[in-house]
Write a structure and sequence with these properties.
2 copies of one chain form a homodimer. By secondary structure, chain A is of the alpha+beta class. Helix content of chain A is 19%, strand content 26%. In chain A, a hairpin with a 2-residue loop joins strand 19 and strand 20. The longest helix of chain A is centred in the N-terminal third of the chain and has 16 residues. The two termini of chain A are 37 Å apart. Chains A and B meet through strand 6 and helix 5 of A and strand 6 and helix 5 of B.
């Protein structure tokens, strides 16, 4: 099932079911107004949504309309929790190696995760408004899941059962504000502005056997100003699966329905080729590209994003079809 | 106006108006079902709530019922944002002095703030369920405000206009997990379990002239196992007022209606008396008491909380009347 939230001028928009091929959509408001409501009462609401989805896919839904991602908000336009992991240790290794820092041994067994603002998400085609180009504007292409209720102390296996939906995220970062936030130790308060999500959130069955043990075994594509810079494999190098990330979060508290958990920047290990290390899959954030440049050349040569730059993030299924619709945003100054 | 949320078995409860003297309450669901809805559309909804409040205070509300805090959830049982400052630098100074660390100069101009989980708040009389007594269970008595929409880049003065409601918070901390969280620099993910709030949230006019320039000039009382351990003045030693805290949060992003911003542990400077430093106002968290003991005796002697311990947090107005109702909780093991 594919779910989305259409803009209607309100804070929470209206729930819509989207056809598998992303060609058309249908209001679900006869069943349920908002995605959070569906998550709050999933076992009752989701079968009704599934019926509408099936009818839509059969071309029999009476009030279907063409699906245009620009009309959409984030599937959850605001959420009660957004906790973003850093599950691809390779990313952490590269960034640390670039500043001659080692990775503590504990990072391989104990996930990194920060709590982000969830009161004001961006739609997939909304501008990324940043106060200044000097802040080091970066995209971060990620996978994110939306959870059911998961009780305090749940095991990773139990927590994995709590995954309801999958979507893509652009966890925008202001790199030049990161050192200040890190030095305080209180988390990324100013260096992580509003996060954007893909137009569509999908249930696990939509991923077929690409969803394996809490990981999405597909390629995450990132295009910066129209140039494909990342074709990263999201599965193999994900050091902690989503069940482990959720279990980490609920070690000391309950996680409630509608919580969003991010994977962190998708990142692949380098390979030995032509007498040196290469990263043929590209990158899912500029900071990683700059880290690689620093390791190889002593300094970074790729600059961060400027106003007017565009970033497109998408993922195709094994059938070559777009799964989530694309995040397609432009960087913009404050109005 | 005094607002609260009564338990009804649902995730968001039902909005209730509470009489000024906390003797009675009245369902506001004829006007608006949930506090978040009122905050989303405050200018339209709040005058209607005010009318009901006035009628209730005049003893003329037809369906008033006795107010019992044990029936109540947090005013916002879940919220789209919970960002907690550390606005009383004296607290930071004491805790750092106890471990022979200095306070960086920047801490006096740039607030500390972390993002906490907001998907699962505790009601004022709900048990504080902790996985283990060995985690260093501590209370933290704080003031918290609920905001309107505040745009990115707002000045502290503008941000201060965004304060809609004030309440009390018990920002429970698991002290023995803090060093691990701090070492990662990603914020307090596991060391800050669910936060509890006072039964009632009040508009600024309820504080009269005790609300001055973004600070509450009243005494925050904390009683641990029935013993009054803190009578802390919340006004004078608050290094950053709420407008400054909100402006800090919205430096790089919009803050949306219903965001909760905390003051951090209320703390008062020590005074010279009887040939040494004394802290006659007591403490709003055990960690601060232990810091003082460490500074004076070389080691802490007060232990953290055990299962069965109680914590009561409340605040009286200048007329001696209880303003918010009391937070009154017991520490409990997982069921």
């Amino acid at each position: 099932m594919k779910l989305a939230t259409i803009k209607d001028g309100s804070r929470d928009g209206q729930l819509v079911v989207v056809a598998r091929d992303l060609s058309s959509a249908h209001y679900a408001t006869g069943i349920c107004c908002h995605l959070q409501q569906a998550l709050d009462d999933w076992n009752f609401v989701s079968p009704q949504l599934q019926d509408l989805y099936d009818t839509l896919n059969q071309g029999k839904a009476r009030h279907a309309f063409p699906f245009d991602p620009r009309q959409f908000m984030a599937p959850l336009p605001r959420a009660y929790q957004w906790a973003d992991g850093s599950a691809y240790i390779n990313h952490v290794e590269l960034v640390r190696a670039a500043r001659d820092a080692t990775v503590p041994e504990s990072f391989y067994t104990d996930p990194l995760m920060y709590q982000g603002g969830s009161d004001d998400f961006l739609g997939p085609c909304d501008d990324v408004v940043c106060p200044s180009e000097d802040m080091g504007i970066d995209f971060e292409a990620e996978i994110a899941v939306v959870t059911a209720d998961v009780p305090m102390g749940a095991t990773p296996e139990r927590a994995l059962d709590g995954v309801r939906l999958v979507m893509l995220a652009n966890d925008v970062s202001l790199r030049n504000l990161v050192p200040g936030d890190l030095a305080k130790g209180f988390g990324f308060l100013q260096s992580k502005p509003a996060t954007a999500f893909s137009p569509v959130a999908v249930t696990l069955d939509e991923l077929g056997d690409a969803w394996q043990k809490g990981r999405v075994h597909l390629t995450l594509q990132s295009s910066w100003n129209g140039r494909k810079v990342g074709m990263c494999e999201a599965g193999p190098d994900m050091s902690f699966h989503f069940g482990q990330l959720i279990a980490h979060l609920c070690k000391t508290r309950n996680v409630r329905a509608g919580s969003i958990i991010g994977s962190g920047t998708v990142s692949n290990k380098g390979v030995q080729a032509q007498g040196g290390m290469q990263w043929p899959k590209g990158y899912s954030c500029i900071a990683e590209k700059r880290a690689i440049e620093t390791i190889q050349d002593g300094k970074p040569s790729t600059q961060y994003m400027r106003y007017g730059d565009t970033i497109r993030i998408e993922m195709k299924g094994r059938d070559g079809q777009d799964i989530f619709g694309a995040i397609d945003q432009q960087i913009a100054p404050p109005r």
